[in-house]
Amino acid sequence: MQQTVNTCCIHRTNVTFLLDQNLSRKLIAPLSRVWPGCNHVYDLALSQASDRAIWEDAKNKALCILTKDSDFLHLALLYGAPPKVIIIRAGNVSTSDIEHMLLAHQKEIDDFLASMVESVLVIP
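User: That's the sequence. What structure does it adopt?
Assistant: Structure tokens below.
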């Protein structure tokens, strides 16, 4: 007897997100339903920290930085992964718009998180 598995509900990696201060803490709940364990820099006492300090914390905790700040792209090019970085290229949009954008790119994000070679993903 063949057994089938619903792969849309399987997370291929246990990497989760560290949301930068330029993203709302309100994203934690909806994103955690898909990517459990999301954190915000505010909740980790990093809201006043430098980008480099946030980078090091994400690296030490095996988190993927989720940001709108292109400075993290420069850090990724300079130091490489870990941590991985997802940069959201969206102007002044609502938190709901960002949530929908990320969920619309769920497969691409999951593939990126599982990749052993990719270190930066830009979501247009």
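The longest strand covers residues 63-67.
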